[in-house]
């Protein structure tokens, strides 16, 4: 049986008072690990638990995960975070969820059992399907309706692959016996014991089946990919009613009221509520989102247009750019070259030298992403001399994160016809003061850290809390939003222009595309 929040006395919707002892739980179902955090009304993360999850690579370029492992691990960390903190489900006012995007699960409506492993967002197995769709001339219609590049990254061709390759799947789908979901949908369905089959608009916008203008599943796109509409979940706002966690999972049954794809949850966690607001998450890769308001801006520079925020009865669109190798370059220095012990040492090492000695490292380890899009490009270090040493390489690696972000941000500005006012940053590598100062110098604008190293789960908590009146509105979130260090642009213009020119020269040398 599901309790209502008011019955439990967590939230008094009438006079909007909240007992000080209630909390929001947020889940972050990531690619390599799942997490659960507990947040208090001052936005402080008071407890967290996490668990790694496995990834399988059954063939080169194929990426799979076990949906039941994701579910079981997520439930395990929900229990662990309560146990660790002593804050149990009777004090959880609402639950928010952020998740790895695009990853695709198809399961049987009757048994609830997946008919195949989850196909991961990184999986390239559907490249031949994509080639066929491009040859058939569908690139434009897909771009117009979904804002996305026709690419194996998005869920649509992954669903088609399952229907075409798992024995009996297409017939079952046509008979209405199968359900598709991204990880949010899979988790919500199971956490609510099958009562709620839904996704949110930010996750839907990554499937290549969702029309981001009409905010509906699109019949023409479903036809193109041969996917029956009956296997698609209901699409809701990111801050909405997703039912209650079943009593089999939590003794008391908090409502699920916040759902967003990880990058959009992070965007919300950064309070990027207004047109022009932009965030960059510096992790293994970099993920950049710029708020373009109520306008879908189509990119001329290889960026994606997507739903950035779907809250408060209003959609804000965004431009999105991803950088494949950012913090991973530091891992490479540590694990492959063995020239550093800890990622955290790199700021001091980079700062120990005066300048970059005209040495540039282009980490095109798996091709170049936005704005160059050259899948065959490979990494390069330019400008080595006999005087180059460990610090030269470390500095070049650190600078590469800032240069790559610079290129994406300038593309965003060109596409949106707007100038960035400041950049909000999170992610482990955003704690590297050298990189952040260098980023501010390159861009000529302030770079501002969030206090929380990671805003993904926080954003999911915000979305959940808004729905139940835990926080009143976006203004309250903004007022409480805790910031870390602020890096003001410094450095000489001539010097910066020199660095950018050296970087772009190095990028040009990695390119395989004839210009
Ligand atoms: P993700 O969420 O993508 O797994 P994180 O935000 O935890 O990533 O960031 C991890 C990455 O950040 C690693 O690749 C690591 O090398 C890099 N990293 C961590 N700390 C620093 C630092 N102080 N300076 C530069 N890079 C760092």
Overall pLDDT metric:
92
**What order do the strands of the largest sheet run in, or round the barrel if closed?**
16-17-15-14-20-21-22
Q: What structural category characterises the helix and strand content?
A: alpha/beta
State the major sheet: 7 strands, mixed
Bound molecules: adenosine-5'-diphosphate
Strand runs, count: 22
Outline, from the CA principal axes?
globular
Separate helix tally:
17
Low-confidence parts: 1-20
- SS strand fraction: 15-25%
Task: Give the terminus-to-terminus CA distance.
Answer: 64 Å
Helical content stands at 25-40%
Compute the CA-based radius of gyration: 23 Å
Q: Could you explain the architecture of this structure?
A:
- The protein contains 17 helices and 22 strands.
- The strands form seven sheets. The chain has a seven-stranded mixed beta sheet.
- It has about 525 residues and is an alpha/beta fold.
- Helix 2 (about 65-85) crosses helix 7 (about 185-190) and helix 13 (about 390-415) packs across helix 14.
- The structure holds adenosine-5'-diphosphate (ADP).
